[in-house]
Structures are given as structure tokens and as C-alpha cells.
């Protein structure tokens, strides 16, 4: 087998693995019942799946301009997915729409007792 065939095979495997991870993220969004587990399902496998698919595209096309195009996509995804998940989780905590009995550690319990404008 030539090096091109090996690169194509590895790209195929990476695309398949990335697609499976993205599919599990979508299934997790539909199946999980509370906000925190849905956020976990939406961020972790989806970001890894996108990274695997971008690596597969770069291996398949073997072009530096393609890598230069895909690199900002991966970096923006790595920056925005955790930030948006944190914001949604924080708002769900403030609204009281999370499953509090299942929280092992509640680091925000003190901030809930003190109103935000109370200064304390």
C-alpha cells in the first residue's frame, strides 16, 4: 500500500469516528433529561468529533491552504463551546431548572443566598 492509500484510509477512519461522536452528542441532547447532562453531551463529544473530521479533511486534501482554513474553525469551536455551555449552565442554576439533589458539590450555594446587588 502506498502512503496515499494509508492517508485516505486514516481519513476515512477519522471521518467515521467524528461522525459517530457527533451522532452520540445529538442522541445525548435528545435522551438526557436535565440541563447539565445535556450540556455535557452537547460539548464534549461534539467538539472532539469536529476536530476529528477537520483532521480527516486535512489528511484527505493534503493542502496547506486547507489546513490554514480549518485551524481557525477548530480554535473558534474550542473557545466558544465551553463558554456557551458555562453560560447556559449558570443561567439554568440561577433559574432553578437543574436537578439539585444530584449535585455532588454546589460551589454556588453561597451566591444563591446573597442577592447579587447586596454587596456581600
Automatic annotation (TrEMBL):
InterPro entries recorded: PhaG_MnhG_YufB
Entry annotated with the keyword Magnesium: no
Keyword GTP-binding applies: no
Family, similarity comment: Belongs to the CPA3 antiporters (TC 2.A.63) subunit G family.
Chain segments annotated as transmembrane: 6-30, 42-61, 67-85
The protein's name in its UniProt record: Monovalent cation/H(+) antiporter subunit G
Name of a matching Pfam family: PhaG_MnhG_YufB
Source organism per UniProt: Microbacterium gallinarum
UniProt keywords, alphabetically: Membrane, Transmembrane, Transmembrane helix
Amino acid at each position: 500500500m502506498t502512503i496515499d492509500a494509508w492517508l485516505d484510509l486514516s481519513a476515512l477512519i477519522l471521518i467515521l469516528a467524528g461522525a459517530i461522536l457527533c451522532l452520540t452528542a445529538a442522541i445525548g441532547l435528545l435522551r438526557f433529561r436535565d440541563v447539565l447532562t445535556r450540556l455535557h453531551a452537547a460539548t464534549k463529544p461534539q467538539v472532539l468529533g469536529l476536530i476529528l473530521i477537520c483532521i480527516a479533511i486535512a489528511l484527505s486534501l493534503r493542502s496547506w491552504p486547507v489546513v490554514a482554513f480549518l485551524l481557525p474553525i477548530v480554535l473558534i469551536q474550542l473557545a466558544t463551546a465551553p463558554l456557551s455551555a458555562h453560560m447556559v449552565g449558570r443561567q439554568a442554576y440561577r433559574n432553578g431548572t437543574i436537578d439539585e439533589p444530584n449535585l455532588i458539590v454546589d460551589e454556588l450555594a453561597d451566591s444563591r443566598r446573597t442577592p447579587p446587588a447586596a454587596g456581600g
